[in-house]
Structure formats: structure tokens, C-alpha cells
Write a structure and sequence with these properties.
- The chain is 70% helix and 0% strand.
- The protein is built from 21 helices and no strands.
- The longest helix is centred in the middle third of the chain and has 43 residues, at 213-255.
- It is flat.
Length: 458
């Protein structure tokens, strides 16, 4: 009788714990993981240098935690058919629009992520191009590439009427809604868990409706599709509207209506933050302020530095950028251009064939790294300059910083990581530790060995 009782209890539990509840439970667990893990990650020392944080980028996890709790509740307590499906659909909106909010409303974060991605691509290209020189005279023959200018945060720029043709609308997804490679550089596990978990929860909710599931889904889509379309139109319309206003500012500037340009531009930087990181917009604003006698010293110094930078007068450009950064320490575009000017100056010392001064170049690269902590290209150039100067242990210390910094990114740079381990290998060889040398060399050619140094593959 005892055995029969427990057998009946087991079958009762099996009937109660059906496929829809299992599906909802799995989705709720993933939602909980999405609330636990961060949604966006960047090196903390970099964020501190730029005077920003990722509080709001990760605060969106709170409502997702409530959805996870609701999922568990309807799995174990309430009837699953009573679950508010539209609430779960509504929770999907901030997840899908998360890239848009980061790239549009957090331009400094977007700028840092873009710098990491672009500089990482540049370094990877340099590693591939100079692979044959890696072992040649301890890299003595390598020539460093000059860095590119920082990219504008105003990526959704409509330059002509061809934008409205269908083949050009991939730019809407990549730039307008933020689904570009640079955004995914710092994406955390939480965002992916939340997106997958919410979709699985919705699947479980519709499975519970059985034969009525498809009909109910179609009825709710009649509400969700117009709302989503309206939201999409508002976002796209805002991008187009601000582009039109920006074009009108060019017209007003050409007409000499400088006061209107200044007033409108100052309002635009608050209503549409990507303009804060666009050099053309800032240059026009600075000139309009200069003509109206209301020039802001920090912005004026930045424009003067920009002119010198374009003329390859990097010393003068560096001086002006430093003055501008001193006036406005949180202006991220100035910091980016200042680092680019410093790197160009250091590379000129390093690349000079007859009077190569790797030691002086290394000191200059150190300065760039202090202004933009974690800057991938500055670290790579510094690592090379140290080893060319015969400072193998200092080069190894920089290599450790390279390896440590890569753990914040979705995909560590394979070429950069490999070269960092090569520099560690040389340092261990100079120490006379053959076993450690072999271990480091294995890490330079085998990504599976990266975990031994604390860098996790995602």
C-alpha cells in the first residue's frame, strides 16, 4: 500500500509538471541568470578615467528579475494560463532596444566600446601583417602603424537621398538601433540570458493554451505589431528629424546666422547625445561661438587641436587637446583625440629608421595609456617598444595588462593575445626558466591554455 501511494504521488506530480511548466521553468531560470550577470562590461579603470559608470546600463536587470519571479510563481503556485503574457512581451522591448539606448543615450560608453573594437581590429591587422617579423631580431625590424582618428558617435548620419532606398537600410539596424560589432564588444552574459529566457517563457505560456495557443498568439500580435511598429517609427523618425535639423544648421551657418546655430546646437547636444562625439558638429559650433563672441575655451582649444592634428602637427595638437581636457575632463572625444596625437608622436620616434628611439617612444606610449587606461593600441605599441628596447621584463608586465584587459570583452583578440604570450615567453626565457617558457609558448599558440592565466573564453 505504501508503494502504491508513492507511485500514485509520482504519477500525479508527473502529470502536474508538464511540458509547458518545464519550459516556463527553464525560461525563468535563464531570466534569473540574466538578472544576476551584468549586461554590459568595460574595464573599470577606463570608466573611471572618463568619469562615467555603467549603473543605468545594468539597472535594467531589475525588471527582468521581477519577470523571473513571476515565471517561478506561475510555474509552482498559480495556474499558468492566468499568466500576463503581454507583460512578458513588454519586457522584451527593453531587451531588444538595449543596443539603441547604449549607442544613442550613452555616447561616452558607445565611444569607449567603439575605440576598443576599432583599435583591436587595427592591432589584429598589424599582427597578421607583421607575423613574419615576430622572431626576426627580437622584432627589431617591425614598423608601427599610425592610429586612425577616433570614430564619431553620430553614426546615423544621412548624407543623401540614397539612404531611403531599401539596400541602405541595413544602416538603420547597425547604426540607428545599435546592432553593430562595436556594441557587442562589451556585451555581458546577462543580456543574452535575458533574451533567450524571455523567449522560452513566452513559448511556455503559449504551450499552456494548447489548441487555442495559435489563435491567441495571432490575436495578441494584432496589438503588439502596431505598438512595435509605432515604436520603431518614433525611433527612426527621431533619427531622421535630428539629421534634418543638423542639415539646417549647415544652411544657417552658411548664411551667417551664428546665434541661431549656437542656440540650436546647445539644445541638440542634450536632446540627441550622439552629437557630443561628432567632430563636424563640434567644429561648426565652435566657429559659430567664435563669431558671436561666446567661444567656450575648452571647445575652442579642441578645434585648434583638431586643425593641428589634421596637419600632422601632433605636438601642437597634443598641447591644445590637453588644455581642452583640463577645461572639460569628461569630454570623451577630446580624450580620444589626445591619445591619438600622443600615439602618433611616439610612433614617429619608434619608426625613424636611422635614429630609432624605442625608449622615448615607450615613455610616450605610457603617457597615452595613463590618459586612456586599457587603450588596446597604446598597450600593444608600448609592449613592442619595451621589447625592442631590450626591456623584456617591462614588456612582459605590459603583456599581462593586455591579457587582463581582454577578459572584459566578448571575444578576446586572438592575434593580440598570442603576441602577449610571446612576450611573456621571451621574459621567462631570459629568466632561465625553461619549464615556464614552454608553458607560456603553449599559451601563445593554444587558446585552450588561456584559462591557465585567468582569461576565460566566452
Amino acid at each position: 500500500m505504501n508503494q502504491s501511494y508513492w507511485t500514485n504521488r509520482f504519477f500525479a506530480f508527473a502529470n502536474w509538471f508538464n511540458r509547458e511548466k518545464i519550459t516556463l521553468l527553464i525560461g525563468s531560470i535563464l531570466l534569473l541568470l540574466g538578472a544576476i550577470f551584468s549586461w554590459y562590461r568595460l574595464p573599470p579603470e577606463t570608466l573611471e578615467a572618463f568619469g562615467i559608470n555603467l549603473f543605468w546600463a545594468n539597472a535594467v536587470r531589475v525588471p527582468l528579475a521581477l519577470c523571473a519571479i513571476a515565471g517561478f510563481t506561475y510555474t509552482f503556485v498559480f495556474h499558468i494560463r492566468q499568466a500576463p503574457r503581454l507583460v512578458f512581451w513588454g519586457a522584451l522591448i527593453p531587451i531588444l532596444l538595449f543596443p539603441y539606448f547604449i549607442t544613442t543615450w550613452s555616447p561616452a560608453v558607445s565611444f569607449i566600446a567603439a575605440e576598443y573594437y576599432n583599435r583591436g581590429e587595427k592591432v589584429s591587422s598589424h599582427v597578421d601583417k607583421n607575423f613574419s617579423e615576430v622572431q626576426a631580431q627580437w622584432k627589431q625590424n617591425i614598423v608601427l602603424d599610425n592610429p586612425d582618428a577616433p570614430a564619431s558617435t553620430f553614426g546615423m548620419k544621412i548624407e543623401d537621398s540614397r539612404f531611403f532606398q531599401l539596400p541602405s537600410w541595413d544602416k538603420v539596424i547597425l547604426e540607428g538601433f545599435g546592432y553593430k560589432n562595436s556594441f557587442f564588444t562589451g556585451i555581458g552574459k546577462g543580456w543574452g540570458f535575458s533574451l533567450i529566457g524571455l523567449l522560452i517563457c513566452l513559448m511556455g505560456l503559449y504551450l499552456a493554451l494548447e489548441q487555442q495557443g495559435l489563435n491567441t498568439f495571432m490575436k495578441e500580435m494584432k496589438i503588439l505589431v502596431p505598438v512595435s511598429g509605432l515604436l520603431f517609427s518614433i525611433i527612426l523618425g527621431s533619427h531622421i528629424c535630428f539629421n534634418i535639423i543638423n542639415y539646417q544648421l549647415n544652411v544657417q551657418f552658411a548664411k551667417g546666422e551664428y546665434s541661431q546655430v549656437v542656440n540650436t546646437s546647445q539644445v541638440l547636444t542634450r536632446l540627441y547625445p550622439p552629437f557630443q562625439g561628432d567632430e563636424e558638429f563640434l567644429e561648426r559650433l565652435a566657429r559659430a561661438e567664435l563669431y558671436t563672441g561666446t567661444a567656450e575655451p575648452g571647445l575652442l582649444n579642441f578645434i585648434q587641436g583638431l586643425e593641428n592634428y589634421k596637419d600632422s602637427n601632433f605636438v601642437e595638437a597634443e598641447n591644445y587637446f590637453e588644455k581642452s581636457l583640463h577645461s572639460q575632463p569628461n569630454r570623451f572625444l577630446v580624450r580620444g583625440y589626445l591619445v591619438a596625437a600622443i600615439l602618433n608622436r611616439g610612433i614617429n620616434y619608434f619608426n625613424e629608421p636611422n635614429t630609432r628611439n624605442a625608449g622615448t617612444a615607450a615613455d610616450i606610449f605610457e603617457k597615452a595609456f595613463s590618459i586612456f587606461p586599457g587603450h588596446v593600441e597604446a598597450l600593444y605599441d608600448l609592449m613592442l617598444a619595451r621589447v625592442v628596447n631590450g626591456e623584456f621584463h617591462k614588456s612582459a608586465e605590459v603583456a599581462k595588462q593586455v591579457i587582463d584587459g581582454q577578459k572584459y570583452f566578448q571575444e578576446p583578440g586572438i592575434g593580440l593575445m598570442g603576441q602577449a604570450y610571446v612576450h611573456l615567453t621571451w621574459a621567462e626565457y631570459n629568466n632561465g626558466d625553461i619549464n615556464k617558457t614552454w608553458e607560456r609558448y603553449r599559451q601563445s599558440v593554444d587558446t585552450k591554455a588561456w584559462n591557465d592565466s585567468g582569461v576565460e573564453k566566452k
